[in-house]
Amino acid sequence: MSKKSDQFIAIPENLDYRATEFYDMDEDERELQSTQLYEAFADITKRYTEVKEIASGGMKIISRAYDQKTSRYVAMATVKESLGSESYGPFLAEARLTAALHHPNIIKVHDIDYQGDGSPYFTMDLKLGDSLHEILNKLQQGDEAYSKIYTRESLLNIFIKICDAVSYSHSQSVLHLDIKPENVQVGDHGEVLLCDWGLARQLGDKTNDTLELLSMDFLRGETLVGKVRGTPGFIAPELLEDKSKRGYRSDIYALGAVLYSILTLKEPIDASDVIEILRKTKEGMLVPPIERSPDRSIAQSLNAVVMKAMAKDKYERYQSVAELTEDVRKYLFGFATSAENAGFLKEFSLFYKRNRNASRIAGIAILVIVVFTNAFIVKLEKARQQEHSLRLVAEQEKKKAEENFQKYKEEKDLADLTLANDPTVVLAKIKEYYHRNFLHVPKKTLDHVMKSLERIKQSNDSAILLYEFKGDVHFVRQEFDLALNELKKGRGAESNMNLFSSLKSIEDYKSGQDPAPISVIRKLMTSLRGNFLQQQVRMMLYDREVRANDLEHLELVKMIFKEINRTSEIEQFDFDFETKTLTISGDFVRCSVYISQFDRQVSLISTLKPEHLILKQSRRFNMASLDVLKLKSLDLSAMPLSTLNKIVKKGVTEKLIVSQKMTDPELIKLLQKENNLELRP
Amino acid sequence: MDNWNTRESLLLRASDPDDHEAFEEFVYYYKNFISMVFVKMGVNDSHVDDLKQDLLVKLWRDISKFDSTRENSNFRGWLSVVIRHEVYRFFRKSKKNQTDELPDNHLNLSEESEVDKMIEDEWKAYVTSLAVEKVKSYFDGNALKVFYLTLEGKNAAAIAEELDMSENSVYVLRSRVKARFQSEIRQLRMFLENHQ
């Protein structure tokens, strides 16, 4: 989830009262237009003919019908007569909700209307082909024709399309709530449609349904569970407790269950009756796919994906459908998935699979070296027996050989990167390397990154990405002129107007070996007006490694600290180099900032290596990265503290100073346990 | 790169005391609204900032206590109650200190429902105004003009004449902008009001 501040909507100075009526307006009340187009068809008295029932569900009957106006066959849904007019509302709601979704993998509604007897109907795409349920059944029975078409890979591709459909509907805040193989229609040419949105809800819609409608499967089970909607085995545990708890993650559970069925060709939960299924669902008693179908050679990574998606605790599941899809895609492309927490060996074997040829060449090269080294050692062994002095020389030689081997290995890594076919993949790998290592060794990482970037083969697809990446690295290295050059090669001002014009304002500065003068950086930052903050923070971290002058570095830290904290709110920011004491005073003080590339809080003051920190007047401060600082003392005596601030209890080695008057007594008790606490009046 | 659509509710994230990004966004979107309401309720300009800071900290602290699953509870209503109490408390205090004149206000502060109604109306205007800002970035030229003229209550024929275009294109443009606008409102409400 991106959280960059430039995504904030500008708050208008004056409110626009003209449009408030739209606030509560239901989107479905959108005007129906273009009705005039149908006027030409006025003489068609009966639109749908040749109606023939093809399926029936808990609430609907689906028929095939010929649409005279568009001259094609469509599927027509009507309400079961036995349910009566009470069910018209929910029925229309389903039609409307489905109609509002536009996605290639979601069934399309063509028409909603009333029949002569006043009962509503709607028409949809007429689905050809089988449901995923039928396909899985056939596969389970060992049908040869099906096994040929529906390989594991093609089933996973179908699964990804289902995920895409759900991901889209979630983006529209619509939950499906009854995802299962029966509701997925697969066409002969790879078309995949997610159908039956009869239980779907707009997220946040808390209305209780007066009419409890059950899936067909459910009805053949027990009546006892009449309060639950959905399909046993696919329904998420939280929905069994309280259906107002439905959320995106309930659909993610169901998707996990579908993937389970695809992998095992079995129902997700193994039980003799509905009651038992529901009990096992509630208790999260799930047999991992690998154990359930050991004969189906299920990959560890996919097993892990299922287990994560179907976690009993919804917070342990994937946070979004996109993450789930990404993991399945990764498997299909041969990368390790996030769910399996891959170790080195796993990564390595997948890497080998992806880069078979390159790896083999490298492997042979290593083998040759090993053989030679080995031969050398054998020879050495002989020599040792003969001559002691010769052995010393030989050992030196051996050491050299090992050093060469090491050097070769490092270069091979680089070469592997730059040799890969797709430059965008290479860029992504370099970026990953960057984000993993920058915080530990900023300068070395950037040097390495730049060296790798310069070796990348250029292609049209990746050129702009490459320029922008290089520009970013130059920016952090304070080579502002080079950064501007890269931007010019790429999309120029178009990519980031503000950055471009800011760099242009300091065009005269020519970078060299030394870090940029503070005056230049100041000018640049003034011009950036609070944009590009994450790059500025990285530049500051890099600066500590390259700048010899402590006072200048302090000035930069101060500038960036004020940027992040919005200058107006910081009254004081002083650092005493002799006592290593940092004093900050302000209303809302943030000592660290979340950097999305590193996915963590990064301390804004760590480069000063303060030993003592004095924080004043702050109503709220963030301390997330306090323990990184290893402070000797922390003085909070000039600010009120409540129990919310118990976070300060860790991370100070010598002394924590708080005010007796302004601190919650409960907090004082808590702090006294863990710290050498000094109380000031 | 519009991640707005898939973002989790701000309030939900804001309930997590360690999510500082959420706090920043929470302050960004709520502080202006709160100021506007304070001014409408007759809080003296010089006090608005202090009162606002107090309230933000209070909201921030109590937001995790707000329980959306209780019946008849929504965040807007809760916010309205919290704001009302804060302002009453402020006026009581200043009356005691005799430092402030009580506001000369057309709003009857003793009538709770009236205050709540004002806050609600203001919130609606705030959300729709934000949506207007958002929509601006998607359309330009005539599409927006048509939309604004519609907001002013003009009918399609009049708009067509004023902008020198066919009535049909007015319909098309209007429904496109309107659809976008409604979807922005829905997403904003999801983001700013929903708590689950």
Task: Write out key terms for the chains shown.
heterodimer; A: 681 residues; alpha/beta; Transferase(Phosphotransferase), domain 1; 6-stranded mixed β-sheet; 5-stranded antiparallel β-sheet; 45% helix; disordered N terminus; B: 196 residues; mainly alpha; Rna Polymerase Sigma Factor, Chain: A; 8 helices; 0% strand
Give a short overview.
Helices cover 45% and strands 15% of the residues of chain A. By secondary structure, chain A is of the alpha/beta class. In chain A, helix 24 links the parallel strand 19 and strand 20.
CATH architecture of chain B: Orthogonal Bundle
Unreliable runs of chain B, pLDDT <50, ≥5 residues? 1-6
The CATH class assignment of chain B is Mainly Alpha
**Spatial strand order of the main sheet of chain A:** 11-12-16-18-19-20
Q: Please give the CATH class of the domain at 129-346 in chain A.
A: Mainly Alpha
Strand content of chain B: under 5%
Distance between the termini of chain A: 45 Å
CATH superfamily of the domain at 129-346 in chain A: Transferase(Phosphotransferase) domain 1
Instruction: Report the order of strands and helices of chain B.
Output: HHHHHHHH
Estimate the helix proportion of chain A, in percent. Answer: 40-55%
Which topology of chain B does CATH recognise?
A: Rna Polymerase Sigma Factor, Chain: A
- In CATH terms, what is the fold-level topology of the domain at 129-346 in chain A? Transferase(Phosphotransferase), domain 1
Give a written overview of the molecule.
The complex is a heterodimer of chains A (681) and B (196). Chain A has 681 residues and is α/β, with parallel strands linked by helices. In chain A, 45% of the residues lie in helices and 15% in strands. Chain A has 24 helices and 20 strands. In chain A, the strands form six sheets. A six-stranded mixed sheet of chain A has the order 11-12-16-18-19-20. A five-stranded antiparallel sheet of chain A has the order 1-2-3-5-4, with helices on one face. Chain A has a three-stranded antiparallel sheet with strand order 6-8-9. In chain A, strand 8 and strand 9 form a beta hairpin. In chain A, helix 12 (344-354) crosses helix 13 (356-386) and helix 21 packs antiparallel against helix 22. With 196 residues, chain B is an all-alpha fold. In chain B, helix 6 (142-151) crosses helix 7. Classes of the chains: A alpha/beta (681), B mainly alpha (196). Chains A and B meet through loops of A and helix 2, helix 3, helix 5 and helix 8 of B.
